[in-house]
Amino acid sequence: MFTTYLRRELAGRRKQTAIVAIGMALAIALVIIVNAVSAGVQNAQATVLESVYGVGTDITVSQEAVAPTEGEAGTGGPQRFDFGADDGATTDGTTSVSQSRLEPERGTTTFDASALDTVTTVDNVSAAAATLALSNTSFAGEVPDMAATDSTDAAATGTMPAAGERPAGGPDGAGGSAFSVDSFTVLGLDPADEAVGPLSSVTLTEGRTLAAADADTNVAVLDSSYATTASLAVGDTVTIADTDFEIVGLVTATTADAATASNVYIPLDVAQTLSGLTDQVSDIYVQASASTAINQVQSDIETALPDSTVNTQSDLASSVSGSLSSASDLVKNLGLWLSLIVLAAAFLIAILFTISGVTRRTREFGTLKAIGWSNGKIVRQVAGESLVQGLIGGAVGIVVGLAGILVINLVAPTLTAGAATSTEAMGGPGGGPGGFGEAAAAAATSDILLSVPVTFSVILLAVGLSVLGGLIAGMIGGWRASSLRPAEALRSIA
Amino acid sequence: MYELTNVTKTYSQGKRTVTALKNVSVSIPNGQMVAIQGPTGGGKSTLLQMLGALDRPTDGTVELGTSNLSTLGDGKLGKIRATEIGFVFQGFNLIPTLTAQENVETALAPLGIPASERKSRAAEALAAVGLGERLTHLPAELSGGQQQRVAIARALVKEPTVLLADEPTGNLDEDTRDDIMELLEGLWRDRGLTLIVVTHDTAVAARAQRRLHIKQGVLTEVA
Questions:
Q1: pLDDT for A216-265, tens place per residue?
Q2: B9 in A contact zone (CB under 8 Å)
Q3: In this complex, is the C-beta atom of B82 within 8 Å of any C-beta atom belonging to chain A?
Q4: A–B CB contacts, 8 A cutoff, strictly below
Q5: Domains along the sequence of chain B with CATH
Q6: Which is deepest, A149, A217, B134, B212, by most CB within 10 Å?
C-alpha cells in the first residue's frame, strides 16, 4: 500500500512534485559545482605550492629577515665586486675581469643547521630536509689596460696618450669598457634526501638527479627552463662562485607551465662551503606523519625554535596570488554562500510545499485515521513522499551538476598563479636579459588549466543532501499530519 | 453493543465553552439500525464521533462491547476503528489519486493483510456494491452515487461489527439516495451489522428500526 499510495500521490500531484524536485535539483547542482570547482582550485593551489615547496611538504621552517646591527654587513644586502690592480687578464690593451659570488638571497635569513636535528626530534615528524637558498651573481667586464695609462710607466712603454688624447685599448679599442652581470638562484640541498623538499616534486627530464654520493662534489642539477635560456645541457659546466660544476641532470616542474623552485640545485655542503655559510640553512621542509598532526607539529616546532617562522600548507595557500587566488576567493565566498542560500531556499520550498500539501489533504489524513491508520503509518507515508521528491531532485541535480562540471572542464579556464616565495624577493632592479629577478619570477609564476574533478564524495554529498532535504520536509509534514486529531480533521471539512 | 452512560462533551471556543452533548445515555444492541436526527449544530456529528472512537467524552462512558472507548489510548482506539467500525461520510472522503480498488484497500492496510489478499478482498467488496467493473477508476471518473458505493465498500471490506454513516445521502439526488439506502439496508440485513445513520432526511430516517433525536446536546427517543 505504501508504494502504491506513494507512486499515485507523486504522479497525481505532478506540479508539486516537479516544483520541489526542481528546487532541490538546482540547489544540489550548485552544491556539486561549487564543491567540485573548490576541489579543482585547491588542486591547482596544491600544484603551484608543490612546484615551489615540494610534494608532501606539510610545514616549512624559516627565519624572518632581521635588520643588520650597526657595523654589521648583514646578508643579502647590495653586492659589491672589488678588483685588484693585478686582477684579470690583459690582451691587446684590454683587461678582462670576472667574479662570481654565492650569497644568500635578498630577504633570506640563514640559521644554524642544528635546527634540522631539533625538528626531526619533534613528535609526528616523518621526514625533514634542510636547504640553503642562495643567489649566484657574476660580474664580468672588459676595461682598458690601466697599466698602460699609468703615468709612472708611460715613459717606459711610451704609450702614454698626449694631453687631451683619450686612452686607447678596451673592448672598443678606444678606451671604452663593457660589463655584463648575470644572476641565478642556487639551492643547496641534502642530495640523499628525496622524500621531502623542492626536488621531490620535480620531473627528471634528462640525466639524473642528485644522489647521496654527490655530497661534497661539484655537480649540479638545473631547472630545464633555465638551462634552455642559458644554453646549458647535461655534461656542460656551470660556474658558481668561480667554481665549475658539472651538470648531471635537468628537471622540470610537474605542471607543464610551472618552473621549479630554483634555477640550479647543488649539494648542501658544497653550497655552504662556497657561500661561506658553514652549517647554515635557510629553510627546513617538514612532513608530518598524518594530516591531523600538522597543527601539533607546527606548535611543537614553534616552541622548540622560538625565533623561527613555521608555516603550514594552509598558511602557504594564502601566498598563492593571481587569478587562481581570485577564483579561490570567489568559490570560498560567493560560491559557498550562494550554494548555502539556494540549498536553504530549496529545503524551505520542500518544507512549505509539504506542509501546504498536508493542510490540503487534512480530510484525506482524517479519513485514514478514521479507518484505523496509525500516526506512524501516516508519518511514514508523508515522509516517504518527501524523501522520494528529494531523491528525484537529487538525481536531476547530480545530472545537471555533472553537466556543469563537464562544461567547465571543456572550457578549461586558465588561471595564473603566483606563489609568494623567498625567491620572489629577488625581483627588483634589472630586467635586461639575465637580469636580477627574471629567473625568480619564473620560478614562482605559472598558468594552470582549471580541471574540476568529480569525486565520489561530491556525489555522496549530493545524495546525502537530497535525502536530508526530503527527510526534514517529510518529518515536519508528517509531524503536522500526525498531530491532526481525526475528529477535528473530519470536522474541519464538515 | 453500545452503552453510553451520562456522556457529556464540551469544547472551548475562545473564552466560551460549548456543550455539544449533555448527559447522553443510550443503549444500542448489536444488529440494530438506528437513525439519529436533529438540527444542524445539535450534536449529531459529536455523538457519531463518540460512537466511532474518534473522540473521547469530557465526562461519562462510551462502551463498545467490552471496550471502554472513554479511557482507551489513541493506539487502541485506532485498532478498534481499524477492525470493528466502518465509516461512511457525506462527502465520500475518497483519496483522489487512488483507484476505486486502491481506496478500498486503504481500509485493509492497517491490518497487515498481504497485498494479494488485499486486492482480491477489495475487488470482492466493490463487486458487492455493484462496482465490479470499475476497479481501476479514479474517484473523479465516478458519479456521486458510485463514489459513495466505493466508500461503503471501503467501510465494509474489513467486515466490521458497526457501520456509522454520517449523512450518507446528503450529497445525492433522490433516486441515487434510494439506491444507496437500499444497498445499506441490504448489507445491514445480510451481515447483521449495527447500522447507525445520522441524517437530516426524514425519508432516510423512516427506514430505521429506531429513531433518536438530538437537539442542543440532549438525546431523546422518537416514538
A1: 899 999 988 889 888 899 999 988 888 889 999 998 876 655 567 788 99
A2: no
A3: yes
A4: 83
A5: 31-54+82-221 (3.40.50.300)
A6: B212
